[in-house]
Design brief:
It is a single chain. The protein has one domain: Alpha-Beta Complex (Fumarylacetoacetate hydrolase, domain 2). 20% of the residues lie in helices and 34% in strands. It is built from five helices and 13 strands. The longest helix has 15 residues.
Length: 235
């Protein structure tokens, strides 16, 4: 049966378009239906895509677009929150090998990750490989919600105790490209944006603390000072 959103777009067709775009690593075809997305329809598309991978509850979440400028650019009325697709989720990682050919237009960013244990929360180094199935990252309003939450892959390290200020240095093939820092307390406050309370063993990426770097071949190192380093090699 064909399912229609309240504003008219055919959800099944849009789900299929995004699913095939992710599978084939190519942009979605142009379709006027994208311009008629509502928040509810976009959320339904995102949930349907997640259920194509697994029926299990999410074990990881991603957040983003906490600033007004980013929300305006993405056509979002509020921060972006999405369940992480488990087929491209890496945990307790130190180095991950990825292929550029498996993504459409990937970008890298360091984030403060949070691991929710049975009795406490801990910091985990986190790097998101963000990706967008819309040509040139030109998302329609609410398109980011429908498009897998703009995720390509999510990489988490191992839990450690966090200082109040988390600092990160970014290198590509040994060359420094950026440095940044962010507040651990602010990251913890963002957990309130989750649609459900984080259970034990759940990872959460709390939003970028560095600029987004267009992914390119080579070794990318994200050194979270005194907390661990995540390395991603793109071929």
């Amino acid at each position: 049966m064909t399912v229609r959103g309240s504003d008219g777009p055919v959800i099944d067709d849009l789900v299929t378009a995004l699913w095939e775009a992710r599978r084939a690593a190519r942009p979605v075809p142009a379709d006027e239906a994208w311009d008629r997305l509502s928040a509810d329809t976009a959320a339904a598309i995102g949930q349907t895509l997640y259920r194509r991978v697994t029926l299990d509850p999410p074990t990881a979440w991603k957040m983003g677009a906490f600033d007004e400028l980013t929300r305006q650019r993405l056509g979002l009325p509020q921060p972006l929150v999405a369940a992480v697709m488990p087929d491209r989720l890496y945990t307790d990682a130190t180095q991950v090998e990825l292929r550029l050919a498996d993504f459409v237009n990937p970008k890298l960013e360091a984030e403060i990750g949070i691991w929710s244990g049975p009795f406490e929360t801990s910091f985990v180094p986190c790097v998101e490989v963000a990706d967008c199935r819309f040509q040139g990252w030109q998302t329609p309003p609410f398109g980011a919600t429908a498009d897998f939450g703009l995720q390509g892959a999510m990489v988490f390290g191992s839990p450690v105790t966090a200082p109040e200020t988390v600092s990160v240095r970014v290198r590509r093939d040994g060359v420094n490209v950026a440095a940044a820092s962010a507040s651990w307390s602010e990251a913890l406050r963002r957990l309130a944006c989750l649609p459900v309370p984080g259970g034990a063993g759940v990872h959460t990426a709390t939003g970028s603390i560095t600029p987004m770097f267009p992914a390119a071949p080579g070794l990318w190192e994200f050194e979270f000072v005194d907390l661990g380093t995540l390395s991603i090699r793109f071929s």
